[in-house]
Design goal:
This protein is an alpha+beta fold. It has 13 helices and 16 strands. α3 packs across α9 (251-262), α7 (216-231) packs antiparallel against α12 (317-333) and α9 packs across α10. It is globular and about 55 Å long.
Length: 387
């Protein structure tokens, strides 16, 4: 049975106010318990994979790690904060879930290596170690639509954990073995590239970090106000819309989902899923199907605050140029660093436990949007460290 410590995140209040306002309300953020843990997954050499046209596989693997971890938490009826990053994911979990989640992610890692020849890092850092090194992890919940809320995290604790896990000397040691099959139920990845709602709009994948952790809230607020001013509300700048959604019934697409979910080839699964996808095109023309699509757009994950701003937005090319120019000005003032990638479409992978309210849809820019934006940001960070 879940303890009060396990339910720390589950019991956090959901805040209904603009993000720019939430960032100024320190009392609405709560310190992550010392005995919790940070788990991170990351596709090694993801930038090169994106350059080789394997960005959708990278997204698929990243989404798979979220499905694996959330299914462990779901069985225990525990909510955990998690963050999609395009080429990986981050979770903050209570000790109750640690062993089972690591085992599930290691199983997913092995399947990824076998089926896609990609190496998925899986790493773990205790929150207490993060605090001992002087970093913060403060979390809040924000309602972003009628039926969807997201975690908002301040502090550089996750970036510290990421540096440890990506270090050449890091090795995850675990003697825990599982007698159960990996549960990847709910994994769906059958949508075609999604064109922006308006013709000739671009899709921007943006990552922003504050140079000073103590000034993170004000820097993020400044950036979010800038985005609102240039693009409008989150609803207006959302890169996906119902009329642009198209399911793909190709065996290649279904086969990739199959190998991620099952870890191997299964002819019955392939045929059944292909037929379901074909029939789905008919279903989504019905009243109930259209209601699901509107919920899908509502529950799409286009904004991630994990100690950085990660967002996918759409607008005109001139709006994108204005945003980049404004961010360059803030960068020159020394308040932040950013990575920016523009593409002509977005991609989506999904976690669907049921067709009502238990589904979430992970959005990235096409052609490896987040991965390429992160690559630019890493170069800027490296340049600062060597100057």
């Amino acid at each position: 049975m879940a303890t009060s410590n396990d339910l720390f995140y589950s019991r956090l209040p959901v805040n209904v106010l603009p993000l720019s306002e939430l960032l100024t309300e320190e009392h609405l953020f709560f310190k992550v318990p010392d005995n919790w843990h940070v788990l991170i997954t990351d596709v090694k050499n993801s930038t090169q994979a994106a350059m080789e046209g394997k960005h959708q596989t990278v997204n698929l693997v990243a989404t798979g790690s979220i499905v694996a971890a959330l299914n462990v938490a779901f069985k225990e009826n525990i909510l955990i904060p998690f963050f999609f990053g395009g080429d990986g994911a981050t979770f903050i979990i209570p000790p109750t879930l640690l062993d089972a989640t690591i085992v599930a992610l290691q199983q997913h890692r092995q399947n990824t290596l076998t089926n896609f020849s990609m190496d998925l890092r899986v790493g773990h850092v205790p929150v207490t170690e993060i605090y001992q090194q002087g970093h913060e992890l403060k979390v809040s919940k924000l309602k972003t639509s009628n039926i969807f809320n997201i975690p908002v995290l301040l502090g550089n604790g996750l970036q510290f954990a990421e540096r440890i896990i990506k270090g050449v000397d890091y090795k995850l040691s675990t003697s825990v073995q599982s007698t159960e099959d990996l549960d990847m139920s709910g994994m769906h990845c059958r949508w075609d590239k999604i064109k922006p709602p308006v013709t000739n709009f671009e899709v921007v994948s943006l990552i922003v970090m504050a140079k000073d952790e103590t000034a993170q809230s004000s820097a993020f607020r400044q950036v979010m106000e800038l985005i609102e001013k240039i693009y409008g509300s989150q609803e207006v700048r959302k890169p996906i819309s119902v009329d642009k959604l198209r399911m793909v019934a190709s065996l290649k697409k279904v086969g990739a989902e199959m190998r991620t979910r099952l870890g191997s080839f299964n002819a019955w699964y392939l045929v059944k899923t292909w037929m379901t996808t074909v029939l789905g095109k008919v279903y989504f023309r019905t009243k109930k199907g259209k209601e699901y699509l509107y919920k899908l757009v509502d529950m799409s994950d286009t904004l991630v605050i994990d100690g950085r701003i990660n967002t996918v937005i759409t607008g005109t090319i001139s709006q994108g140029e204005e945003l980049k120019k404004s961010l360059q000005g803030l960068e020159q003032q020394g308040s932040l660093l950013f990575g920016f990638h523009s593409s002509t479409a977005s991609v989506m992978s999904c976690y669907v436990r049921n067709m009502d309210d238990q589904h979430i849809h992970f959005i990235d820019g096409a052609d490896g949007g987040y991965t390429k934006a992160a690559g630019l940001l890493k170069k800027k960070i490296a340049s600062l460290q060597t100057s």
